[in-house]
Write a structure and sequence with these properties.
Layout (H helix, E strand, L loop, with lengths): L10 H15 L7 H15 L2 H7 L2 H19 L7 H10 L2 H10 L3 H5 L1 H27 E4 L2 E4 L11 H6 L7 H4 L5 H20 L6 H21 L2 H21 L3 H19 L2 H16 L5 H18 L10 H9 L6 H6 L6 H22 L1 H4 L3 H19 L6 H16 L11
Antiparallel strand pairs: 1-2
Length: 437
């Protein structure tokens, strides 16, 4: 006789299953996540005890929690001095997750805390299925049949005299960059994969979390994710990937006594560096920077960013304390850029600051900028044990991506940032909390 369904659907277990669904779908169908966030909130309040849990957490966690709530409050407060109210309200709605996840993870039940490693695994498997589907999609689009023969052509940009490498640089190859990434912009998908690399390292390092079969499987997935990150060719991700693997190999070499292993590790690092730096998009970036230095005309992503950053700094000087307001960042930036006709390619596209630190500073002034830095850095004091390494990896990934993208302007970026930031803080190793349910 089967056990009653109530055994599997207690209010504690429902919340855990909801977390599994959310974290699995971050790399996949992110548009389906909001209803599950609402369900999690409903069941959390049914469980109750949120105020008690706030009183029980450490002072450091209370300080972080208050700072994270203040960081969100700045967003609706910025409507008081913004002109574009419609844009501001849209931004407030988009950033509700910044408020939701500190509360949800503060109220996380003991079953969620106990199954934190499974949460990491669900994220890994979500990224694995997303990667497989991206490869299958690229193959499907590249293969055609003509006169009974199978033809393979991965170049998207037809009739432009582009070489294979040109097609990669300008995003016209099914196996690279935006054409490969089916679910997210390559920057975000690459960030998810890089985070998964840290999770895989953590799981492989802790023998109690895997057996021999899964150890081999996770090693394969680790190498597969590196391959996908290289194909996605996000410049920020390639920087992060090199930092991750370089740091890992340095630590490995330092702890190894074998000269052969040390030699092989150094050789692998050199090969990796060569693969990254001969990546067509990296070479294209270098050429773009060289051309921009000559005529100061922004053509593509990198030179456009130089112009955006420079004009963002001008706006910061003019609105240092409070910023321009929640809804006016893009409008004020476009006004600043419009004074130079060379910037037409940027104003036509209505680009944002393309740097999260600058975007926050322009929108919410020095207060918002300092709060953002605080909620990123202060957790280093809170997160301990093995999770500390994972958090450092998270900060490297987010910190580098924030230099090139306004991640907190998209739901994918907000969800990734606030979910894992609060996961590390409130679902942390604490012997008094890890008990059987």
């Amino acid at each position: 006789m089967l056990p009653p369904i109530s055994k599997y659907l207690t209010k504690h277990k429902i919340n855990l299953y909801i977390v599994y669904i959310i974290v699995f779908n971050i790399p996949l169908y992110i548009e389906y996540i909001p209803p599950f966030i609402i369900l999690w909130a409903i069941f959390m309040f049914i469980e109750g005890g949120l105020i008690r849990k706030f009183k029980e957490v450490s002072t450091d966690k209370k300080i972080y929690f208050i700072a994270s709530i203040l960081f969100f409050i700045l967003v609706p407060m910025g409507l008081l001095w913004t002109n574009n109210i419609k844009s501001g309200l849209s931004i407030v709605e988009e950033k509700l997750s910044l408020l939701a996840f500190p509360v949800l993870f503060l109220g996380a039940n003991k079953l969620i805390i106990k199954n934190k490693i499974n949460i990491l695994k669900f994220f890994i498997w979500g990224n694995f299925f997303a990667s497989i589907m991206c490869i299958i999609g690229a193959l499907y689009k590249s293969i055609s049949f003509e006169d009974g023969k199978m033809l393979f052509d991965a170049v998207v940009l037809k009739g432009n005299n582009y070489t294979f490498f040109n097609s990669i640089i300008y995003g016209g190859n099914y196996f690279f960059y935006t054409e490969l990434s089916l679910f997210h912009h390559p920057t975000y998908f690459s960030a998810f994969l890089c985070m998964s690399l840290f999770f895989l390292y953590f799981i492989l390092k802790n023998k109690e979390y895997n057996n021999n079969f899964f150890k081999r499987l996770y090693i394969f997935i680790f190498l597969f994710f590196i391959f996908i990150v290289v194909l996605l060719s996000s410049k920020a991700a390639l920087i992060v990937l090199f930092i991750i693997l370089a740091a890992g190999l340095i630590l490995f070499v330092k702890n190894s006594k074998s000269k052969i292993i040390k030699f092989v590790s150094v050789f692998f690092l050199i090969i990796l560096a060569i693969i990254i730096f001969i990546n067509p998009r990296v070479k294209g970036t270098w050429n773009e920077i060289t051309n921009y230095k000559k005529d100061k005309i922004p053509r593509y992503s990198v030179s456009a960013r130089f112009v955006l950053w420079n004009n963002s700094l001008k706006l910061i000087k003019q609105n240092f304390i409070y910023g321009v307001g929640t809804g006016d960042v893009k409008d004020e930036l476009m006004k600043e850029l419009a004074s130079d006709k060379r910037n037409k390619v940027i104003t036509d596209k209505q680009l944002n600051c393309h740097n999260q630190y600058l975007e926050t500073f322009v929108g919410h002034g020095v207060i918002g900028f300092l709060l953002l830095l605080f909620i990123m850095i202060y957790p280093l004091k809170i997160v301990r044990n093995d999770f500390r390494l994972l958090y450092i990896g998270f900060i490297i990934i987010v910190g580098v991506n924030f230099l090139f993208e306004t991640m907190l302007n998209t739901f994918a970026g907000i969800l990734f940032f606030t979910f894992f930031l609060n996961f590390y803080i409130f679902v942390n190793d604490n012997k008094s909390q890890i008990i059987e349910i």
